[in-house]
Design brief:
Largest sheet: 5 strands, mixed
Number of helices: 3
Radius of gyration: 17 Å
Number of strands: 5
Strand order of the largest sheet: 3-4-1-2-5
Strand content: 25-35%
Shape: globular
Length: about 110
């Protein structure tokens, strides 16, 4: 009986996690390759925030960042890949700038 309750609670927690939204931040760099390198971070958010980010990220960033949306996920990425000479350190700085922008607009996201 205890195992059945544990399974039911686990299922409820999983359903809650699935219904939450996800922000996937990505900064692409070294675009001389067919598959550019990138740094990435994920945060959870509400489904309403997913739509809000997708609708507004270009305006919020003055065209610096773009987005894609798929069900309860939104991807935020740099509009243009960094130049070949720019490295992962610069990409991480841009990633932090991207996260700070969304955080200022929506509040503090949780790390997924």
């Amino acid at each position: 009986m205890l195992n059945a309750k544990a399974i039911m609670i686990s299922g409820l927690l999983l359903a809650t996690k699935v219904s939450a939204g996800l922000i996937q931040y990505s900064v692409y760099y070294d675009d001389k390759h067919d598959n550019p390198l990138y740094v990435r971070r994920h945060h959870t958010c509400s489904n309403q925030q997913v739509a809000l980010i997708h609708e507004n990220i270009i305006e919020w960033s003055s065209g610096k960042f773009s987005s894609w949306i798929d069900q309860n996920q939104v991807g935020v990425f740099n509009h243009r890949a960094l130049h070949d000479q720019e490295d992962a350190t610069k990409a991480r700085e841009l990633l932090n700038e991207m996260i700070a922008l969304v955080t200022r607009k929506l509040g503090v996201p949780q790390i997924a």
